[in-house]
Amino acid sequence: MSLLSFLDREHTVAKPGFSRWMVPPAALCIHLCIGQAYALSVFNLPMTKLIGITQSAPGDWKLTDLGWIFSIAIFFLGASAAVFGRWVEEGGPRRAMFTSGLCWAGGFFLSAIGVYSHTLWLIYLGYGFFGGIGLGLGYISPVSTLIKWFPDRPGMATGMAIMGFGGGAFIASPLSVWLMAKFSSATHVGVAEAFICLGIIYLCFMWVGAAIVRVPAPGWKPEGYTPPVVAQKLITKNDVYVYDAIKTPQFWLIWAVLCLNVTAGIGVLGQASAMSQEMFPGHVTPVAAAGFVGLLSLFNMLGRFFWASTSDIIGRKNTYFCFFVIGTVLYALVPHTGSIGSVALFVLCFVVIMSMYGGGFATVPAYLKDMFGTRYVGAIHGWLITAWSMAGIFGPVLVNYIRQYQIEHGVPKAQAYNTTMYVMAGLLVVGFVCNFMITAVHERFHMKSDHEAERAQAAVAAAGEPAGA
Amino acid sequence: MTNGHQQGTTRLQLLLAWGFVGIPLAWGVVQTIANAMKLFQ
Fold first, then answer.
1. Does the distance separating the beta carbons of A291 and B35 come in below 8 Å?
2. Can you tell me whether residue A17 is helix, strand or coil?
3. Which of A110, A220, A419, A441 could be a cystine partner for A216, CB 3.0 to 4.6 Å?
4. Among candidate residues A52, A48, A83, A80, the one with its CA nearest the CA of residue A66
5. What string of DSSP letters covers A33-86?
6. Which of residues 276-295 of A touch B (CB under 8 A)?
7. What is the spatial distance between Cα B4 and Cα A166, in angstroms, rounded to a whole number?
8. Which domains does chain A have, with CATH numbers?
């Protein structure tokens, strides 16, 4: 009972003297752990040899079966972020982080049993379902708290946390390989033991984050900070209730902006290794291609912090304009790098593109805060995450399908990605238009001063069909 | 109310908190950079 009350929002309110710089590490504790999802693929090959040990034997799982683990997890990431967003917002960050840790680590433990008993559905249930819920809760849990602690630099604050999600794979990948090597023998592949170790490590890390996190006391503001007196067109001082926010055209325009930015990036990220080798045959070896993927991941992470921080200076809308203009130019330039055989220019194009892919994720919470206020920004962000789930399907399918179509129609492999690049550039042009169309949310959606969501909803209903001009 | 460090949060607490997340992250970044260097070899 006392433990449960420790998790309550009211027990999370910071006492005077608490430094807000303790909150980003708390958020990073969560995001560095759930970022492991990007490194799940290191387990794929070992899990196809659990019976055969040195090579796949009859009865061993196939890569296509294992691919579903990640897909299920990403689906439940989006679903849980949308469904539990309001609960996260109202219950406070500590409860959400604690629950996220339980689900995430529990998913690993259940998956370890699945590996040990060679029962694939247990891994779907463990990592896919429970892990996916842990991902969703963990991803959104620190967002609104950070925005409240850093009203002067919301982009930088959320960028720091979401950078952790990109960085989580950097830790998980070598750690997982090391753990598997430790527990493997001539007759055994150490996947189950690695899962248990990771589960324990992540549980400890995430619960430390939950213990550290605090919410600011009502009315708190940073020392010396005075909110801008002159109203800015695209930065609201009002709050919008979560279920009203998703009725506004602004929400769906930002949804499209994120979806298009992610679709363009995620498809390339998944195919980066093959693409670099096929576009520069003989110049880029498989080892160098692996290095290229590592470089992309690094810029994906750094871009999250850089672009989100930049958005505090130039504004969110302008930041996304940068993504769409620079991205369009760079995607259109990539086929040219292939035709002139310039690996350096090719790498330069993609590291910038990847930085903007990461930047898109990291800047969007602050964009939502500007449009819909801070009160329900975590829950609204939860709904927006569905754009990521959608892009996770569209992006790779688009890249793979276009490449296959080109090759089947006699296009050399070195040029098979050219059309894809132009399609990606086209997607970014559409994204530019969507971003251009974003205007301030109509005041009929604003919550009343007593913050009663029901009243705000009633006001919207009374006003008829929302126009959100 | 301010966010001063003097009364509540100490510098040591801040250092520990940032070290707790910063050290593993730095280790991961170094591993990734070492891997990425293969592109230029």
1. yes
2. coil
3. A220
4. A48
5. HHGGGGGGGGGHHHHT-TTTTTS--TTSPPHHHHHHHHHHHHHHHHHHHHHHHH
6. 284, 287-292, 294-295
7. 31
8. 2-212 (1.20.1250.20), 242-456 (1.20.1250.20)
Predicted local confidence at residue A466, as pLDDT: 37
A211 touches chain B (CB under 8 A): no
Q: How far apart are the first and last CA of chain A?
A: 48
Q: In sequence order, what are the beta bridge partners of A235?
A: A232
3-state SS assignment for residue A230: coil
Q: In this complex, which of A174, A223, A347 lies closest to B3 when CB atoms are compared?
A: A223
Tokens read off for A182 = 């430790």
Task: Provide the token pair at B8.
Answer: 């509540």
Q: Which residues of B touch A172 (CB under 8 A)?
A: 28
Question: A58, exposed or middle or buried, with CB in 10 Å at 0-12, 13-18, 19+?
Answer: exposed
Spatial distance between the Cα atoms of A439 and A441, rounded to a whole number of angstroms: 6
Q: What is the ipTM of this complex?
A: 0.86
Among chain A residues, CA nearest to B39? A288
> Which chain A residue is nearest to residue B1, measuring alpha carbons?
A220
Specify whether the CB–CB gap between A172 and A418 falls below 8 A.
Answer: no
C-alpha Rg value of chain A to the nearest Å = 23
pLDDT single digits (tens) A348-363: 999 999 999 999 999 9
Question: Of A277, A295, A348, A350, which to mutate for an interface test with B (greatest number of B Cβ within 10 Å)?
Answer: A295
Q: How far apart are CA A249 and CA A441, in angstroms?
A: 8
Which residues in chain A touch residue B26, judged by CB atoms under 8 angstroms apart?
Answer: none
Rounded CA gap, A64 and A9, in Å?
A: 43
Q: Do A295 and B18 touch (CB under 8 A)?
A: no
pTM, 2 dp: 0.86
Which chain A residues are within 8 Å of B24, Cβ to Cβ? 32, 171
- B5, B18, B35, B37: best mutation site toward chain A, by most A Cβ within 10 Å? B35
**Separation between Cα atoms, residue A26 and residue A37, nearest integer Å:** 19
Residue A463, token pair as written in the block: 């006003």
To the nearest whole Å, the CA of A146 is away from the closest chain B CA by: 14
A208 has a chain B CB within 8 A of its CB = yes
Question: In this model, does residue A457 exceed pLDDT 60?
Answer: no
CB contacts of A295 in chain B (<8 Å) are: 36, 39
A237 — phi, psi (to 5°)? -105, 0
DSSP for A123-155 reads: HIIIIIIIHHHHHHHHHHTTHHHHHHH-TT-HH
Give the model's confidence band at A456: pLDDT under 50 very low, under 70 low, under 90 confident, else very high.
low
Chain A residue nearest residue B27, CA to CA: A171
